[in-house]
Task: inverse folding
């Protein structure tokens, strides 16, 4: 790919040699969901290491959770300030401690959570006004799913750069679908190409995110606000690396007039699992893995928001068991029927020694990096997809909602580092027990499908699995190089900071000129 950012950045020295940029102050505001907060926290650490001053806006309980890890980053003149801002959960109709999506007692409250997100604008603006004049932000880097930040940044006259938890392939597909409307009037399961996409892959409407494939209680106005605010942003920061999505980065950068900075994988640049929450089983996981053969273990985790109905969890558990391979299964959610089944079926006792169940947060990056892990059964959230690739672990893919089917296409059909378990259609958050009856078979994932996918990935003597492992290990090498000094993501970070510095200098010049004009008058 002819990449103008990479070509330019070859001539740019590392920022730690550039004294003029070191006093920049950046305010960072994530969406209140683990998969969005964690990479923003990682980016805050990386920027602080470059000498920038960071203010990270978080609700109070979340701030208390992340502050210990961030205080560690304040050593060696690194500056990250955590600014607790009240989150209006109760005012929106949520329980008082529901500051993040994963704390919702039911995914059916996601729409109510959108209301709280809207009401977060006022307390955030009050917090920004409380900042001393000497700490005026040079820019705000915020999640794109906080559309009110467009108005806030306009009022405060601060450049707004959005962070999106998706990769460039998913970004490109979504933007091309908005432009082409190619999904309209299509039968739910009819495959169609996306005009302008530089790959011969096809999608069906059932696999698309909610803006193109709405569920029964979609927040249309919220999605429209997000899209409008996204188009107003100065630029986009992406947690990916150019070598992973070469043609998609180039095309998406063209759509955004060059203002796209790929700075990932962020989890490679910092210690990840400290931010994922404490779990007394974390050390137990790694010790358990120490006793397993290299490349023999399947790690299964379907993300922080996925809440499988009991019948789907049973298929997952029995698919892992009948694969006859050692496995770690992360058990998430609050469905007591799952715990009841595990106990009544005797599943945990039956797989003792072969399988390990982890409740709550699993130390995912550490698990994937362990030499005993040979396959990752994942929901294809972008963070997990990127972490699996960065660890050089091939995937068994079970996408469920949002951009996950798009990420599966990238991993399975374009990169060739995964095998699907049989999921064919989105099941929206809060609708896990509902499917379109006419297409019920398309939403089923069976234990046989899971077992077959595991076999295809894990068999050491089969060419398909061997080729997948070679490809993903090569990508892992490229991922590590991208965040090293002189790598593509390292250089893009330099370009991002220089761009913010340039905007800040222009703003200061404009303010000085205005002051001089006022004095002359």
Result:
């Amino acid at each position: 790919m002819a990449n103008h950012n990479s070509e330019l950045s070859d001539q740019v020295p590392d920022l730690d040699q550039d004294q003029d940029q070191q006093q920049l102050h950046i305010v960072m505001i994530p969406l209140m969901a683990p998969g969005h907060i964690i990479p923003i926290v990682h980016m805050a650490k990386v920027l602080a290491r470059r000498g920038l001053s960071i203010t990270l806006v978080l609700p109070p309980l979340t701030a208390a959770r992340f502050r210990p890890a961030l205080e560690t980053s304040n050593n060696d003149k690194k500056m990250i300030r955590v600014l607790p801002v009240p989150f209006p959960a109760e005012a929106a109709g949520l329980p008082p401690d529901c500051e993040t999506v994963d704390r919702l007692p039911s995914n059916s409250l996601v729409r109510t959570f959108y209301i709280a997100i809207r009401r977060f604008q006022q307390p955030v603006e009050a917090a920004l006004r409380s900042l001393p004049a000497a700490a005026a932000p040079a820019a705000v880097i915020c999640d794109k799913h906080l559309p009110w930040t467009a108005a806030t940044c306009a009022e405060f006259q601060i450049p707004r750069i959005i962070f999106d938890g998706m990769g460039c392939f998913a970004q490109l597909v979504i933007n091309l679908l908005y432009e082409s409307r190619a999904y309209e009037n299509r039968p739910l399961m009819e495959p169609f190409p996306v005009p302008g996409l530089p790959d011969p892959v096809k999608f069906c409407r059932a696999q698309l995110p909610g803006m193109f494939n709405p569920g029964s209680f979609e927040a249309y106005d919220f999605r429209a606000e997000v899209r409008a605010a996204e188009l107003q942003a100065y630029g986009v920061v992406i947690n990916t690396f150019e070598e992973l999505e070469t043609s998609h980065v180039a095309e998406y950068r063209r759509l955004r007039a060059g203002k796209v900075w790929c700075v990932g994988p962020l989890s490679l640049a910092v210690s990840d699992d400290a931010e994922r929450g404490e779990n007394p089983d974390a050390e137990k996981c790694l010790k358990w893995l120490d006793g397993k053969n290299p490349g023999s273990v399947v790690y299964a985790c379907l993300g922080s928001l996925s809440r499988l109905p009991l019948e789907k969890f049973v298929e997952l558990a029995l698919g892992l068991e009948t694969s006859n391979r050692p496995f770690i299964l992360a058990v998430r959610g609050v469905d007591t029927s799952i715990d009841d089944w595990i106990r009544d079926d005797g599943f945990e006792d039956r797989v003792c020694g072969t399988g390990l169940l982890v409740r709550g947060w699993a130390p995912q990056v550490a698990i994937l990096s362990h030499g005993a892990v040979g396959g990752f059964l994942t929901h294809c959230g972008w963070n997990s997809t990127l972490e699996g690739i960065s660890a050089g672990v091939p995937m068994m893919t079970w996408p469920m909602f949002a951009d996950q089917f798009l990420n599966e296409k990238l991993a399975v059909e374009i990169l060739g580092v995964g095998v699907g378990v049989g999921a064919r259609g989105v099941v929206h958050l809060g609708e896990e027990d509902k499917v379109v009856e006419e297409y019920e078979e398309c939403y089923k994932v069976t234990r046989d499908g899971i077992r077959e996918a595991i076999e295809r990935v894990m068999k050491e003597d089969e060419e398909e699995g061997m080729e997948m492992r070679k490809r993903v290990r090569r990508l892992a090498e490229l991922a590590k190089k991208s965040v090293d000094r002189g790598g593509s993501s390292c250089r893009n970070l330099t370009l991002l900071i220089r761009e913010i510095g340039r905007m800040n200098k222009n703003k200061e010049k404009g303010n000085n000129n205005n002051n001089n004009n006022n004095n002359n008058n």
